[in-house]
Write a structure and sequence with these properties.
The complex is a heterodimer of chains A (397) and B (317). Chain A has 397 residues and is mainly beta. Chain A has 3 domains: 145 residues, Immunoglobulins (Immunoglobulin-like, Sandwich); 106 residues, Immunoglobulin-like; 104 residues, Sandwich (Immunoglobulin-like), CATH 2.60.40.10. Chain A contains 3 helices and 29 strands. Chain B has one domain. Chain B is 75% helix and 0% strand. In chain B, helix 11 runs antiparallel to helix 13. Chain B is globular. The two termini of chain B are 21 Å apart. The model of chain B has no long low-confidence stretch (mean pLDDT 89).
């Protein structure tokens, strides 16, 4: 048999030689010396020496090849595996026990090996055997079980601390890297202070995400948008971000540095934005300026945009500081022009602080003086006096 | 010889008798019929116009008085035109009619002074005018409620009453004027013609004359803006000598609540003003008060002149 093998090798191509080396189980066939075609039956595999991580099934792909021979039935089995190992041949995804190969064709087969639970990490050698009438094909395989690589993931924010006002949105760029050997699906979680909203998004997109698949060894960027609570006081707020898959998890801390913002609210007397004043006479209205923001309002100046000829004074004209949730009363003394006509005028009252301001359109109903009414009465009185004089002079005739 | 007692003894008797005579006279009936028909026509037109055009208006009732629909003028313009006619019809022969009927000496033979007679005749006319106007006002308001289907608001009622008072004062002036002419002229036809020509002058021609007189008295200089102001003010002052102008301004102030001033307004006064906002009634009343006071004073002064003229007349049996 060995000599026959040598003959075939001598008169074959280099590739055929390699094949013959792997599957050295064939029938010596008489070949005409002028023929260079190979003849025989082989059982082959792509990788006869391989290593696999522990705790997983091992799949081998096999091929049964027939060159120039009539169809052959080959029964398959495995020899040399330790106890507890399970094996199974498959063909077209079905368990098979034997295969028939036509002449000049091949059959693809698979071998599923299931190591036992406590299999040791070492090299196992075994033989795959195909039996046909009078022929035995043997294929030695060496399988090394290696300790499984732990699945792991890292997340890395590009800029972990951002600063802004309670009105701004904090966008963090976060890179999720799957350092395990397999693709994993990560759930995205975040722990934020109450009232804060955390949204995960694609890096360039508006879709909100709840989970993120990452292939082994690859990384993905995502955007974490944090919207602070509207009334968040100035200060630093941590947000814990977590990616969790069944195998692994990782977390990182994002920090929001919220700077406070002053917000002024101007309200008229008794909450109304209207009042009455007599032309040419001063009238005092009490305005209330509140700070509804989160930081003190500094240097709030009062001013008014009044029609020409009007006088508007504020006491105090300048408030040094208004703390958040504090209200300050300001007396506005308005003197409509003595030329103002009766009816409604609008005076715009403004409060301007550093970075915060508010204004209110204050509607003043100007009343005219009743002096002319008295003058009218005087005219009528004069007429009556003239009549009375006429009566005393010419009366009783 | 010094006479005793109040000069106005018998005033009420004369006034009531005069009013009763007017109420039954054919002349009065005709004049009233004319006023009524035109008024109803104007109101009918106004209602149609309001239903067609005005969607929402806080002073819908006042629109009834001021809305005009072609070819009819508004109720207010009708009154401004016809009220003097009614007043003249009542008083143009008040005194000279007594002369021509030769009843003057008979009346004065009664224990009544001339004072009482003249004042009674004037008051009688005023009573009749007032009754007519109140009736007309109620009629219009009722017609409005009936056709518009909503009651007038308190403010509208106040403004309506103010308007009624203005109408009475306006017709009172013309009553006094007619009384004066009937005292001055012996012939009723002359006094009627004189009163009617004065009426025509004031209602039709005065608005044309006022600019002419103003530009003659204070010409406008192209390069002096103040001359324009002086001219405009003078023109307005002359125009206001006519009761017709005063009546127009009063109705404008009372029936258009958004009216804020009746005279010349400078741009600076309008800066920051809210346009179209209605004035409170008290302010509107204050706005038209000078015009109203002027009419009342004019009425008294004209009556006083008539009184002096009448007292100085020689009356023979």
């Amino acid at each position: 048999m060995r000599s026959a093998c040598g003959i075939v090798a001598a008169c074959s191509l280099l590739g055929a030689l390699a094949l013959a080396d792997v599957a050295c189980a064939q029938e010596p066939t008489p070949i005409p010396p002028h023929e260079t075609r190979i003849v025989g039956l082989w059982l082959t595999t792509d990788y006869p020496v391989l290593s696999e991580p522990m705790g997983k099934d091992v799949k081998l792909s096999l091929a049964l090849e027939n060159k120039q021979l009539p169809p052959v039935r080959v029964a398959l089995s495995v020899k040399g595996l330790p106890d507890g190992w399970e094996w199974k041949f498959t063909g077209d995804n079905r368990p098979v026990g034997a295969a028939i190969v036509d002449s000049d064709s091949s059959v693809k087969l698979g071998l599923d090996l299931t190591p036992p639970k406590g299999a040791e990490a070492k090299t196992y050698g075994f033989m795959i055997i195909g039996k046909s009438e009078g022929r035995v094909l043997e294929l030695p395989v060496s399988l090394s079980l290696t300790a499984a690589e732990p699945a792991s993931v890292t997340i890395e924010p590009k800029l972990p601390a951002l600063r802004g006002t309670p009105k701004s949105t904090f966008d963090y760029q976060v890179t999720v890297r799957n350092e395990g050997a397999e693709e994993q699906l990560f759930n995205l979680l975040a722990q934020s202070p109450p009232g804060f909203q955390v949204v995960f998004k694609e890096q360039y997109g508006s879709q909100e995400l709840t989970s993120l698949p990452v292939k082994a060894g690859e990384s993905k960027d995502l955007k974490v948008s944090v919207t602070p609570a509207n009334d968040a006081a100035a200060g630093q707020y941590p947000v814990m971000m977590q990616v969790v898959s069944p195998e692994s998890s990782a977390q990182t801390q994002l920090v929001l540095d919220i700077t406070g913002q002053a917000k002024l609210a101007l309200a008229g007397p008794d909450g109304r934005l209207s009042g009455e004043a007599t032309a040419g006479k001063e009238k005092t209205f009490t305005f209330a300026i509140g700070n509804t923001g989160t930081a003190p309002a500094q240097g709030v100046k009062m001013s008014a945009n009044a029609p020409s000829g009007w006088k508007v004074d504020f006491a105090p004209a300048m408030i040094d500081v208004i703390q958040p949730d504090q209200k300050v009363d300001v007396a506005a003394t308005m003197t409509p022009s003595d030329k103002a006509i009766a009816g409604d005028y609008v005076v715009t009252v403004r409060a301007n602080g550093d970075g915060a301001s508010d204004n209110a359109a204050f509607r003043i109903t100007v009343l005219t003086s009743t002096l002319w009414g008295v003058a009218g009465l005087g005219v009528i009185g004069a007429a009556v006096i003239v009549l009375a004089v006429a009566v005393t002079r010419y009366g009783r005739r | 010889m010094r006479r005793e007692g109040s000069p106005f003894t018998g005033l009420s008797t004369v006034a009531l008798k005069e009013a009763a005579d007017h109420m039954t006279s054919a002349r009065m009936h005709l004049a009233m019929l004319l006023v009524l028909l035109t008024a109803i026509g104007a109101i009918y037109g106004a209602i149609g116009q309001i239903k067609n055009t005005v969607g929402q208006d806080p002073f819908l009732f006042l629109r009834l008085f001021t809305t005009a629909r072609d070819p009819l003028p508004s109720f207010v313009s009708f009154l401004g035109f016809l009220l003097p006619l009614l007043a003249i019809a009542l008083a143009f022969d008040a005194i000279n009619g007594e002369y021509s009927r030769r009843t003057m000496s008979r009346i004065l033979a009664q224990p009544i002074y001339r004072d009482g007679l003249l004042a009674g005749k004037f008051l009688g006319g005023l009573i009749v005018l007032t009754i007519c106007l109140v009736t007309l006002w109620l009629l219009v308001t009722g017609l409005g409620i009936l056709t518009l289907g909503l009651p007038p608001s308190g403010e509208e009622v106040l403004r309506g009453i103010g308007f009624l008072l203005c109408c009475i004062a306006y017709s009172g002036v013309w009553l006094a004027v007619a009384l004066l002419f009937s005292t001055v002229f012996r012939s009723p036809a002359t006094s009627a013609l004189a009163a009617l020509s004065l009426w025509l002058l004031f209602t039709v021609f005065w608005s044309m004359l006022a600019p002419l007189i103003a530009s003659a008295a204070a010409p406008v200089d192209q390069f002096d803006p103040m001359s324009v102001v002086t001219n405009a003010e003078l023109q307005q002052g002359i125009a206001r000598a006519s009761p017709f102008t005063l009546f127009g301004e009063m109705t404008l102030g009372l029936l258009h609540p958004a009216t804020r001033a009746l005279g010349l307004i400078f741009f600076g006064q309008l800066q920051g003003a809210v346009m179209g906002a209605p004035l409170p009634f008290s302010q509107s009343a204050l706005l038209v008060w000078p015009q109203f006071a002027g009419l009342i004073a004019a009425m008294i002064v004209v009556f006083t002149i008539a009184y002096v003229v009448f007292q100085r007349q020689e009356i023979r049996a």
